[in-house]
Task: structure prediction
Amino acid sequence: MTAYETILVESPAPGVGLVRFNRPSALNALNSQLAAELFDALEGLDADEAVRCIVLTGSDKAFAAGADIKEMQGTDAVTMVAGKDFTEWSRFTRIRKPIIGAVSGWALGGGCEVAMMCDLLVASETAKFGQPEIGIGIIPGAGGTQRLTRAVGKALAMEICLTDRKLTAAEALHYGLVNHVYPVESYLQEAIALAGKIAAMPGVAVKLIKDAVNKAEELSLHDGLAYEKRNFYLSFATADKSEGMAAFVEKRKPEWKHR
Ligand code: DAK
Result:
């Protein structure tokens, strides 16, 4: 496996890939090296046939405290526009296998935005979500005003972005930002167990579902339903459709080929 300096990549359970942010001295602040290593690792796991679900986590203290402010301090708008900064994060959203964010402690700024790019979120009771960019004179730049508003509604998103209000894990659960909240001792194992459940499902259908559900955030209902139908028809072309329906009729457990 590729050697990385700012992340760790593990295989904690059959079919599950785990990526950990690993910059503890900076509360996992997302610098350009970490971003490049993250995209490389995720694309590797996406291409690995043995992996069918990915868990992304940080430490118990911090999922990620945002983009690296010390690195950003020396940059300017033209450098960002001329460089790759504005397109690079789309590499994250092009991953076709489900990504479960396992969030504990700080998920701030870019850290909160990365969490919201995940497909499901499992939080520890200590998780705190926020968009504090206004406190350093900028605004969210990787989805904080968009995905957060879709997730929790306009009124609360405005308050979070304008006043740096932090959302607790219980609030995040209440507003539907996260799927589950567990004690800090068990959130990661629970996230891995959830990933294991997904990894045990037929892999092509899993990808088609992730693709279609994410389209619901972008398309009108009319276009979304048409998009879903195409993925639905495609699922009928899989070996797992034949196996799944045969197994149901024969009253046995299906043996997925993930094809
Ligand atoms: N960047 C760099 N270093 C950070 C950091 C960050 N975001 N957050 C924490 N650290 C470092 C601290 O500087 C400190 O380092 P040393 O001084 O020990 O060398 C170490 O981590 C421990 O932090 P603290 O001493 O501050 O720890 P506390 O427990 O007292 O406080 C905290 C924890 C999370 C409340 C605090 O560290 C904090 O407020 N951190 C900053 C949070 C923040 O403002 N985050 C938003 C950053 S702006 C883009 C798209 C998006 C973005 C950028 C570009 N493009 C499309 C181009 C995103 C921007 C952001 O995220």
User: Anything to note?
Assistant: The longest strand covers residues 7-13. Residues 26-27, 29, 65-70, 80, 85-86, 106, 108-110, 132-133, 135-136, 141-142 surround 4-(N,N-dimethylamino)cinnamoyl-COA (CB under 6 Å). The domain at 203-250 is CATH 1.10.12 (Lyase 2-enoyl-coa Hydratase; Chain  A, domain 2). Strands lie at 7-13, 16-21, 53-57, 62-64, 99-103, 106-108, 120-124, 128-130, 167-168, 180-182.
